[in-house]
């Protein structure tokens, strides 16, 4: 007769994982890179431009960057689900606790591939793949975050160029990026249909940057960008004029799923660190893992993680079949980001005072986790989107 213990299996076995061999191999490449290049000095990430460019070039050499560039431009021609793998592996590593979303700006390569002319892709893809070019995405503004249609940055056609005025805020890698995918108004009267997407070279005249200090991941290089008559070649318009919202909505489901994967990775890492700590830490003459409260806390955390993982897998399968919906992908990001916060908060509690110390990884994970409920759609905006479909 099998005992209760014989039936305990890893989540991977309980819920048949939905990734292809190529996607899993990509995950292994990322894991090996982070272990080798980032984790040993994870809390001393160099945030200056030279140090970060050096790290990106090493990531490029490892084959992590620009994987969605089509084969005819020398890329791997990978599908959007590789972003789920990248996001998960980053967060499953201590690297995320200090580096933050930094590497995930590489996912914006999809915007170039989907909307750029052959000439534009050929111009930028080699640098993106080698890590010479660091990307960023500029949607949010001081007066327009959740309400994207309220964007005030303008782009006015002038001969073969657009002249862009305005600014962006909270831009990941904004402090060090070479290029930014900027959403700007080309038609002031048209609301959503008046927004267009441009590839802007941030080394152009008229671009100024202000680095922002953040409560988590000091290596996120979050910045505010200001554009004063920045001239962008007309060929850098991605897709059609007025098409930005359509382009952003086209990637919405995958974007939300990949942030869900990021939350899952963080929760799993925190759980593993906490289980180890609970076995080693003693109080009242026994390991704290021997208290029933600790066991119940860990059991609840494991349950949340397993439920989240199963739902994520379901969404990955749907995305692969082209049937992922905005509403379900919103649920995926909403549940996983909120569940990960509950799990990580519970983990920190089990670390006691050490959990509050900056030198303890769990405190870095805790701080880095908080933003998952804010960016890529706040929890409130996601609930709004889910409610709309009811
Ligand atoms: C670390 C970090 C990195 C980021 N990176 C990038 C980046 O690379 N590129 C980029 O473009 N942006 C980036 N962002 C911006 C991020 O996407 C926005 O912060 C987010 O969309 C929320 O916008 P907001 O900050 O203007 O908040 P607001 O929209 O002002 O919202 C404030 C509060 O009001 C709530 N609220 C707003 N509207 C509603 C509503 N209709 N119903 C109920 N509640 C509502 C919100 O949920 C929130 O709680 C980043 C943010 C952070 C913190």
Verbal overview:
46% of the residues are buried. The protein has 13 helices and ten strands. Helix 9 (252-280) runs parallel beside helix 11 (326-350). The protein has helices at residues 11-14, 21-38, 49-62, 82-92, 95-99, 109-115, 118-130, 244-250, 252-280, 292-320, 326-350, 361-369, 379-388; strands at residues 135-138, 154-158, 161-171, 179-185, 195-201, 207-211, 223-233, 237-238, 282-283, 286-287. It is of the alpha+beta class. The strands form three sheets. It has a four-stranded mixed β-sheet. Strands 2-3-7-6 form a four-stranded antiparallel β-sheet, with no helix packed on it. Strands 9-10 form a two-stranded antiparallel sheet. The model is unreliable at 1-11 (pLDDT under 50). 46% of the residues lie in helices and 14% in strands. The protein has three domains: 8-134, Butyryl-Coa Dehydrogenase, subunit A, domain 1; 136-242, Beta Barrel (Butyryl-CoA Dehydrogenase, subunit A, domain 2), CATH 2.40.110.10; 251-388, Up-down Bundle (Butyryl-CoA Dehydrogenase, subunit A, domain 3). Bound molecules: flavin-adenine dinucleotide (FAD). The site of flavin-adenine dinucleotide has 20 residues, from strand 1, strand 3 and helix 13.
């Amino acid at each position: 007769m099998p005992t209760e213990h014989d039936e305990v299996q890893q989540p991977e076995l309980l819920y048949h994982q939905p990734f292809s061999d190529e996607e899993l191999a990509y995950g292994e490449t990322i894991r090996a890179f982070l272990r080798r290049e980032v984790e040993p000095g994870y809390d001393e990430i160099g945030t200056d431009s030279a140090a970060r460019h050096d790290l990106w070039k090493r990531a490029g050499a490892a084959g992590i960057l620009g994987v969605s560039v089509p084969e005819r431009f020398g890329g791997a021609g990978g599908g959007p689900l590789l972003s789920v793998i990248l996001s998960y592996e980053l967060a499953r590593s201590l690297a995320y606790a200090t580096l933050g979303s930094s590497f995930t700006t590489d996912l914006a390569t999809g915007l170039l591939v989907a909307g750029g002319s052959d000439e534009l892709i050929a111009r930028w893809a080699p640098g993106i793949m080698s890590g010479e070019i660091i990307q960023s995405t500029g949607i949010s503004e001081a007066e327009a975050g959740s309400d994207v249609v309220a964007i005030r940055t303008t782009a006015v056609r002038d001969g073969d160029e657009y002249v862009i005025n305005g600014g962006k805020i909270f831009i990941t890698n904004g402090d060090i990026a070479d290029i930014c995918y900027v959403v700007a108004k080309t038609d002031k009267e048209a609301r959503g249909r008046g927004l267009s997407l441009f590839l802007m070279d941030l080394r152009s005249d008229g671009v100024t940057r202000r680095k922002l200090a953040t409560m988590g991941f000091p290596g996120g290089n979050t910045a505010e960008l200001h554009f004063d008559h920045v001239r962008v070649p007309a060929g850098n318009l991605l897709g059609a004029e007025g098409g930005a919202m359509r382009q952003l909505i086209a990637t919405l489901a995958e974007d939300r799923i990949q942030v869900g994967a990021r939350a899952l990775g963080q929760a799993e890492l925190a759980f593993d660190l906490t289980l180890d700590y609970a076995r080693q830490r003693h109080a009242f003459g026994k390991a704290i893992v021997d208290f029933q409260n600790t066991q119940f806390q860990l059991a609840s955390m494991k349950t949340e993680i397993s439920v989240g993982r199963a739902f994520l897998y379901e969404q990955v399968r749907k995305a692969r079949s082209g049937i992922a919906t905005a509403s379900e992908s919103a649920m995926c990001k909403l549940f996983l980001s909120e569940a990960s916060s509950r799990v990580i908060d519970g983990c920190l509690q089990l670390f006691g005072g050490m959990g509050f110390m900056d030198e303890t990884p769990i405190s870095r994970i805790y701080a880095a986790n908080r933003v998952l409920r804010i960016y890529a759609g706040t929890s409130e905006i996601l609930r709004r989107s889910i409610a709309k479909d009811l």
